[in-house]
Amino acid sequence: MNLSRHSFFRCFLGSLATMQFVWFYSIHVPNALSLAGYIDGAERMPFQGRLLIVFLLRHLGTSAFFLHLAAITNNFSVWLPRALTGVETLQAVIDFASVTLTGWVAKRLYALYSPSAILAPFIYPLTLLVLASTFLFQTTHLLRFPYDLASTALFSLGLLSILERRSSWFLLIVFTVATVNKETSLLLIPALLIERSFDGSSGKFQISRLWCLVNIGFAGFLSAMWTAWHFWLLWRFKSNPSVFGSHLVLNIGLLLCPIAWPQIASACAYLLPLVLLNRKAISDPVLRAFVLILPGAFMVQSYFGVLAEPRIFGEWVAFVSCTASLIAEDYILRHTSRLRLTENVASSYKSARYLSISQVDMRIPLYSGLPPT
Is the pLDDT confidence value at 213 over 50? Predict the structure, then answer.
């Protein structure tokens, strides 16, 4: 009974924290896109090509339910400095669901790989902190895109389906939805190949499994589907203005500017370097191998993204929250084990030091400076 009460209380607090995060994100983080133009298909590329949220906003944003919900929330003018439209209210609901799903995936991943689960109650709060650092704590380039939090949730769900070895049909559905939302779903393909290259029983990497016809065929099908979709997007929105291109020179300049380092490193709450440097503390070989995708993701984003916007690494929030917790757990368990060993040695020494003379075998000659008689 106590356990269920504690679980309910944690869920209740988690819901309040999620609501506060989404509330702040919706009200105080400026929207980088014109929602009206985005819904009408007139925004710049590649932003316009991220269509999943467009479908939802276009068909549900003007429904009577969300218009009524917006009218109710707008009555609380103290908490809402500006009125929300039905479309913005729907966006907040989508963001709430996305944050909740991201936190659930992080908890699920941790439960899957933790040997003791001693940090289980802290995974969801940690995920919220990592999200806040990635999407809120910026002094410049603080921008909100309608699809960002949904991309975080869908990418996390894709990683979970790979690591749990769900059916290929389930992964195909998640990959398709994630691809319609944002092109970063492509990084799920190397994750899939890495996972399927490890033997399930021995946990060893086997190159023969990597080149297995089934694995290569499925990864090739996902790649072809991703490529076909983005060719279609280029054709469909060929008349839209575009900001697509390389930001490599800009990012090199940012990396050479020390004042930009705190904001660049704030992606995933400054935990990306920690996870990379301490990956050996992760016991599972597949999860440890997944960490090696992070440098590749950083290089891709250094070319296409802007490093001063930590949100471009938002897809990795659940993964980093899980792996950082596993690293912390490993440290705690090793430190606790070492501390107990030290206490046991000290206790044994103390017992031997204060051993009473009556417990000593008097047949053993004690050194007195005189030869034994």
Answer: yes
- The percentage of the chain sitting over the pLDDT mark of 70, rounded to a whole number, equals 90
User: Are the CB atoms for 35 and 45 separated by under 8 Å?
Assistant: no
Alpha-carbon gap, residue 274 to 316, rounded angstroms: 14
3-class secondary-structure state, position 371: coil
Query: Does residue 367 lie in a domain region?
Result: no
Total structural domains in the chain?
1
Q: At what angle do helices 168-181 and 148-163 cross, to 10 degrees?
A: 160
Show the tokens assigned to 233: 């997007």
- Answer yes or no: are the C-beta atoms of 23 and 128 closer than 8 Å: no
Q: What is the pTM of this model?
A: 0.89
Those residues whose C-beta lies under 8 Å from the C-beta of residue 215, and which sit 6 or more positions away, are 192, 193, 196, 197, 209
Query: Beta partners for 60?
Result: none
Residue 154, domain extent: 9-331
Distance CA 317, CA 153 (A): 9
User: What is the amino acid identity at position 339?
Assistant: L
Q: What pLDDT band is residue 135 in, cutting at 50, 70 and 90?
A: very high
**336 lies in some domain:** no
In a domain, 339, yes or no: no
Rg (CA), the chain: 27
Q: Specify the residue for token string 């991309």.
A: 151
Strand partners, 353: none
Q: What length does the chain have?
A: 373
* pLDDT, position 170: 95
Task: Dump pLDDT digits (tens) for 299-349.
Answer: 999 999 999 999 999 999 999 999 999 999 999 998 887 777 676 666 666
Residue 171 CA to residue 151 CA, distance in Å, equals 15
Residue 130 lies in a domain: yes
Arithmetic mean of pLDDT over the chain: 88
